[in-house]
């Protein structure tokens, strides 16, 4: 039986392996760790393949975890709906790619990201604009090295391909975006249905 999430899980594994290698080399230069939610003050939306992975992540939460996510579904305080009160991600193992890559030095083609977000310019044949979390790689002694830089355009292209493969098997829409808040509201609806049956 074909797993419509297989290509995406392989992409996630590659990104996680890259992040682990950067962390092994540069841990002292990185502020990203459990409980740091500095980049999690946003309203994210995800494509169908990532929404499926998030749903899987929500499904494995215990009842208390699902209730916590549901309780945040209508809280608009600027924080990601998936964060708990301690700043930890409820769906950490199923989080979207943007969350997995956010603290890393990311290369984008020139002109793709706003000038204010550019931390450095890439050197060499790939060039491009580099951005990373300002809490990471502070000071010249800690500046990112070439082997620390993730090609964000390539990751985005691979995400688009894994999403197309997913929707080809599920009948979804390759252009659809679903907010994490909407996914949290699905949990609320499920909990309400369960209470109605009691």
Can you offer a commentary on this structure?
The chain is built from six helices and six strands. By secondary structure, it is an alpha+beta fold. A hairpin with a 7-residue loop joins strand 3 and strand 4. The protein is globular.
Keywords, separated by commas or semicolons:
alpha+beta, four-stranded mixed beta sheet
Task: Outline the fold blueprint.
Layout (H helix, E strand, L loop, with lengths): L5 H21 L18 E2 L1 H12 L3 H10 L24 H5 L4 E3 L11 E2 L7 E3 L18 E2 H19 L7 E2 H18 L1
Parallel strand pairs: 2-5
Antiparallel strand pairs: 1-6, 2-4, 3-4
Helix pairs in contact: 1-5, 2-6, 3-6
Element string (H = helix, E = strand): HEHHHEEEEHEH
The amount of beta strand, in percent, is 5-15%
> What is the straight-line distance between the termini?
36 Å
Total of helices: 6
Give a short account of the largest sheet: 4 strands, mixed
How much helical structure, as a percent, in the residues? Answer: 40-55%
The global form is: globular
Strand order of the largest sheet: 3-4-2-5
User: Measured on Cα atoms, how large is the radius of gyration?
Assistant: 18 Å
Give unreliable regions as ranges. Answer: none
Structural class: alpha+beta
Number of domains: 1
Q: Work out the number of β strands.
A: 6
Compute the average pLDDT: 89
Structure described in brief:
The chain has 198 residues and is α+β, with helices and mostly antiparallel strands. It has helices at 6-26, 48-59, 63-72, 97-101, 152-170, 180-197; strands spanning 45-46, 106-108, 120-121, 129-131, 150-151, 178-179.
């Amino acid at each position: 039986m074909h797993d419509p999430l297989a290509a995406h899980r392989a992409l996630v594994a590659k990104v996680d392996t890259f992040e682990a290698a950067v962390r092994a080399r540069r841990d002292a230069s990185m502020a990203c760790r459990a409980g740091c939610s500095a980049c999690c003050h946003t309203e994210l939306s995800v494509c169908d393949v990532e929404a499926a992975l998030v749903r899987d992540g929500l499904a494995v939460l215990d009842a208390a975890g699902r209730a916590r996510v549901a309780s945040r579904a209508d809280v608009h305080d600027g924080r990601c709906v998936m964060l708990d009160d301690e700043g930890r991600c409820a769906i950490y193992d199923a989080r979207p790619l943007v969350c997995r890559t956010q603290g890393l030095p990311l290369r984008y083609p020139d002109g793709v990201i706003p000038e204010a977000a550019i931390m450095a310019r890439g050197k060499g044949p790939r060039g491009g604009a580099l951005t990373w979390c300002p809490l990471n790689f502070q000071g010249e002694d800690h500046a990112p090295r070439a082997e620390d830089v993730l090609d964000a355009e390539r990751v985005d292209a691979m995400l688009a391909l894994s999403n197309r493969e997913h929707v080809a098997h599920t009948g979804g829409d390759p252009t659809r975006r679903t907010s994490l808040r909407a996914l949290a509201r699905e949990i609320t609806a499920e909990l309400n249905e369960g209470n109605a049956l009691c």
